[in-house]
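Researcher: Please predict.
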Amino acid sequence: MNTDKKPSVEIFADGACSGNPGPGGYAAILRTDNKEKEISGSEGHTTNNRMELMAVISAIEALRLPCRIRVTTDSKYIVKGMTEWVHGWMKNGWRNSQKKDVLNRDLWERLLKAVNGHEVEWNWIKGHSGHAENERCDELARLEIEKGRGRPAR
């Protein structure tokens, strides 16, 4: 094995919210050549976009070494945020094109810190379209919402 090559990791991530805002859940699948790990969590009062961000953040923060990462998400907010918007937001003092404060700045800054040292490719897929990993993440995120409400997971 070439030791100077960064390991490759695939991350599939999704967030869900019951009401927006409302109780939310997030989940991610991390996959390397020979391992797969599922992670998930919840918040009692949040938004869908915050849960989408937390899914990606928690997955990247779980990595212990610099990696080549391919993130797949159904969130255009995440993909466009990281590939088109974030550098302009920073340049403009975390103001958006309408000169308003960027929503979820705390999580965008956390995501930027998390990706530091990694090579990241951002991929958007259509949600609820039969993509196996996206469907699994959606299922896990929704189970987190139910657990957070004190209902038994199905």
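Model: The helical segments are 48-61, 76-91, 105-115, 132-148.
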